[in-house]
Amino acid sequence: MLEHDVAPPQRLCASAELEERGRAVSFDVIQWREHVRAFALRFDGRAVAYLNRCAHVPTEMDWQEGEFLDRDKRYIMCSIHGAVYDPLSGQCVMGPCNRGRLTRIELTERDGEVYWHPTRDTKPAFQD
Ligand code: FES
Fold it and tell me: I need a labelling partner for 97 at 20 to 30 A (CA). Which of 59, 69, 91, 118 fits?
């Protein structure tokens, strides 16, 4: 595959693995030649995914592996300084992330499977 080609959708997990407001499924992507962790979770029935990188300081956010939601399971909350994000948009709603937002990764679901969609900037880990 040529460097500028975009890879096809990548299978991430079975739809059933993403339980409503449950533990996230983590995966690796390459962004600008660097390995970056990403995560997918289900919120209000929708599967969403973001890079695991806070908009405040570019560090991983989970409290424990796969645990991103606050105690009430209403928001994604960074474990480092408490930045709060809307789970469906990735937009910062409170805390030190200001007007930042999480970097979204497009997901689709088909036949009980979840796929993530690589872009020119965000590639499958095997492609680099
Ligand atoms: S690193 Fe996430 S709130 Fe500071």
Answer: 118
What is the CA(78)–ligand 1 centre distance, in A?
Answer: 6
Contact 69, 79 (CB under 8 A): no
Q: Is the CB of 78 under 6 A from ligand 1?
A: yes
Q: What pLDDT score was predicted for residue 1?
A: 57
CATH, residue 49: 2.102.10.10
Compute the chain's Rg from CA coordinates.
14
Give 22-56 pLDDT, tens digit per residue. 999 999 999 988 999 999 999 999 999 999 999 99
Work out which ligand 1 atom sits closest to the CA atom of 59: 1
Cβ(24) to ligand 1 under 6 A? no
What is the pLDDT, as a whole number, of residue 128? 46
d(CA 57, CA 64): 18
